[in-house]
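re the bet — no i am not wrong, look at it urself. input seq straight from the record:
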Amino acid sequence: MACAYSLATFHCPWGDCYPFPKPDDEVVVVLGEWWKSDTEDVINEALKSGLAPNVSDAHTINSHPGLISNCPSHGFTLPVKNGKTYMLRLINVALNEKLFFKIAGDKLTVGEVDSTYVKPFKIDTIIIAPGQTTNVLVSADQKSGKYLVVASPFMDSPIAVDNFTATATLHYSDTLANTSTTLTTPPPQNVIPIANSFTNSLRALNSKKYPALVPQTIDHNLFFTIGLGINPCPTCKAGIGSRAVAAINNMTFIMPTTALLQAHYFNISGVFTADFPGNPPHMFNYTGTPPSNLQTTNETKVFRLAYNSTVQLVLQDTGILAPKNHPIDTHFLKR
């Protein structure tokens, strides 16, 4: 089953505003997955069973799995010219897996993560979570040739992952087609120090030119615990009558039949309530032994804020059932 992606890249409206030397060119690199089954069937089966979706049959780089068995594709080719610098706009659109990304013989200069510029740093392997974006600079300063590019899974919890490594090729423009490819080895799936090396290197720009202007007066202090729970599901036979669910402050979001924005704008009652808790309803050791009751509350709630409020939001992973690696984003309804 082929997967289709729709992407948009937003640029600074007043020209060159990078906090690093402007690259000569940029390339969008989409890290994804491919299933032999229909993806709708994969999701429906997961909802029916109460368990996680079946793992994919291959990882992909710009929709190409690369050199794997029973696949005629040779993978995506990234053409470069010696002496040029390229910005790779990496996007992880995988369903549920963090991915390592590296290029043989190259150091990657990380300049932006999730639409936020960071203090540039060099590293040979990055880690990117589902739904996340990372922009890296690649300098084509190696000797002419072909260099292997790999995207491989990172497994930081006891949940099955797709073991296939996606491959592509960085190809210098004056290289003969029959030139052998310089190889690289993907990291082991559970090598936490490599993942930590990347995340621990992230720093705000916070310079004289790009100061971090943090508000000193806070209107709302919100503390959100994030994790998994287990709710009853009589039809989930594979889950033995239960289903794993996600929760924030022990609330599992129930998708309404009317859009939240529509209900908000037209004052339609009965769609959502504005009493989402700003703090966990029950305090416990969030990184220690989980509570005995793992059931969550099913609600459609929002937290109401006055326009132009200053909010401090603290996110706390709980590690209930298993640590999760999804980025968290916020959605605002403005009228």
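see?? The mean pLDDT is 88. told u. also The radius of gyration is 22 Å. so pay up
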